[in-house]
Design a protein that fits this description.
The protein is of the alpha+beta class and about 270 residues long. About 45% of the residues lie in helices and about 15% in strands. The chain has a 5-stranded antiparallel β-sheet, with helices on both faces. Strands 6-7 form a two-stranded antiparallel ribbon. α4 crosses α5. The protein starts with a helix and ends in a 10-residue tail after the last helix. About 5% of the residues have low confidence.
Amino acid sequence: MSWEKKLRQREFTKEREQRYLIRRSELDESLEEVFDRQTLLTLYDMLNTGRLKRVMGVVSAGKESRVYHGLGGSGEELAVKIYLISSAEFRRNRLQYVVNDPRFKAIPRDFRKFVYLWSEREFSNLVEAYESGVPVPKPYTQSKNILVMEFLGENGVRYPLLQEEEFDVDELRSIYSQVVEALSKLYAGAGLVHGDLSQYNIMVGRGLKVYLIDLAQAVKTTHPMAEAYLRRGVETLGNFFRRAGLEIDVEKFLHGVRGGERDVGGA
């Protein structure tokens, strides 16, 4: 089955699940974790000023954030990411990425303000990556713990993660080549390294187009841990591609990301 047919089938099979999520989200008491008073005021401000036209159902839900399907003023599909103001672990687990970031020298001790900083940081990373030609969701706006960006999907159904689908060898080679190119642009163009790279934060859209997501953990290449994060991510992805059927040399993978000759991946 071609990748285009797989996506159409995915959209069809996910439609009822998406409707369920929408209904469930309206009744789920845990939404109170997201929609505290300050978050509601921020969301209303975005709606009242036209930055958002509508916010609809849940696309994905995690311990630290929720992503909603939204619409912009011109009807464009948007992803509305709302960070939860609820976990004390959040700050402790993310300090390693924020420390030594020259863009954010003042690190707030207040938990809520730290979440706001994290959202702002993800937006800044997206802007720098997008302007450098890295395939990431187009950033639209950000305020406090809410981040609005391009929705990677169609009709409210997101594109699958790399981890979620099976690909033949030729498709894997194309995806691998794109991943190396995307990471190289992120490294050389935006001066960033994805701090938590894996098959779970790469999306695959139409035409097997690859997108990098979850850039909040990205650090500047000057960060003291940048090279360690880069190697960890490359090794993680290398293991994924090897299990899927490609012959991947991690050192060649790293060399390609840093701007050297790129390995196309064998089989």
